[in-house]
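In practice, a research group might receive sequence data for several interacting partners and want a quick structural hypothesis before committing to experiments. The following worked case mirrors that situation: the sequences arrive first, and a predicted assembly follows.
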Amino acid sequence: MTRWLLLFILGVIAILMVSPLILTVFTSLKPTTELVNPPWAPPVNLTFEHYVRVWTEGGFSRYFFNTLVISTVDAVVMIVIASLAAYAMVFMEFRFKLLLQILFLIGLMIPVTAIVLPLFQIVRGFGLLNTHLGVILADLALAVSVFVFMFSSYFVGVPKALHEAARIDGATEFQIYRRVVMPIATPAVVTTALLEFLWSWNDLLLRLLLMTRDEMRTLSVGLLNFQGTMTRDVTGLSSGTVIMAIPVVLLFLFFQRHFVRGMTAGAVK
Amino acid sequence: MFPDPDSKLAQRLNPVLFLLPALTIYIVFAIYPTFSVVEYSFTDWDGISPDRNYVGLANYERLFSDKIFWAAFRNTFVWSGVIIVINVGLGLVIAAMLARVWKARLLIQTCIVLPVVISPMAVATIWRWMYQPTGAINQALEGIGLSALSTPWLGSPDTVLYALALAHSWSTIGLSVIIFLAGLQAVDEDLYEAAHVDGANVFQSFRYVTLPALRPVTAVVFILTLTQSFKVFDIVWATTQGGPIRFSEILSTYMYKRGALENQYGYGSAIGVALLVIVSIATILYMQIQQKEDR
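A structural hypothesis for the assembly, expressed as tokens:
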């Protein structure tokens, strides 16, 4: 009896949680004439005209492309640089190791929000304003410590004997990294890729500062701008929102287990 | 590219080669700006002109007498308080209920966690639309006969901060639920059995078994929610930009306005330093609690 009551309450909560998303999808598919109906009324005559309009006239194809490039490069490069650094931290002996550990630890504490003003100046100093590269470098720097720790915690689990055996066989450190250690760390690779892609895809503040030219904008800035100029264009706004949400929602549904594990591990950021 | 693995040179060089890419990017674009923000905060720089003068603690003196800063400071704490109550309190209850249910568990969990991956910008757009005077929330209130409660949620000084906090909680509570669920899996099933045998009902076993067992996890979620909510910028900026007037101004939006929009780099940086200090303290607490738990 109580089990059924619990299930009922949870069902209501689940519906409440997804309803804002469903209402947004409904609105994005409604012909303008149906906007007088309440938001929870499903569209009667489905139309994709708002998507087409936002995608072409609204410039969302451009924003989508920019976002996809930045997020993908972010994810791939992050895997490489974070795993290399973590490998050195776990398997190599060198001076100043403790200092580096503390340095990476500091990175977990820095709130991006607090340092955006000097960050803007540095990116400008390198002449990287309005470039993909500028945003990518900033993204990588601000999240790399999270993933160095994530990879380290996987590498620590690799038996030292395995590493030693490969060394005795004459393998270089890079060969051991590439052929022995990385294959074992596949879960960390997947988690890093997903999480970094997600953070990069969703960020607004950095992109708002570093991308001022329209053709360089990402979806987050594009949507903000669209909202500022087309305040009453409810269907356009909801289509834009759905366009921005669909890739990450799909990724989440396919890789839910990895996401859940990664989000708890990378939660500090 | 890599010298003979056994040579002394290789042993020296390898760590450098492996660490260089990450460390260069990290120091230039994360560590250096962190020191810079502190340095800027002692200057009167406008962010553009070549000359900047050191003005000592002038920016901090101004900070302490700036009514808007204190309003933003208070708002940030109120905002975080509301989010903590929802994410920790409700998050715990939802997780405890989920742990007792087997049917449709994954489906329910998916629905609750899904908003976590939605961009704060998209969250802002969705809720801004729902909170409109004729939006979904007010229409729903009318529909269930509570039209007396309907109000322009984001336009009214009394509701704007709470309404935005609710929207933020909607998009982050899934994370709390996941962490609580992981903690609940570690709770001994036998304890529930024993409580059941002793005649405890659902609420009693929640009160006397679940709550005490989850105390460390609760601390983790508490501090985590605190640090996360202090850092928020996107959702407030994309809905109200701190308005109406200053009623939803938080530290990050105020810093952005002064620093990036009004070119008061020195003063904006002082606000940034305040934010840095608060978040660092909270994060250190978080890491200490988590370490204690790991042991």
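Before designing any experiment, note the following. The two ends of chain A are 41 Å apart (CA to CA). Chain A has a mean pLDDT of 91.
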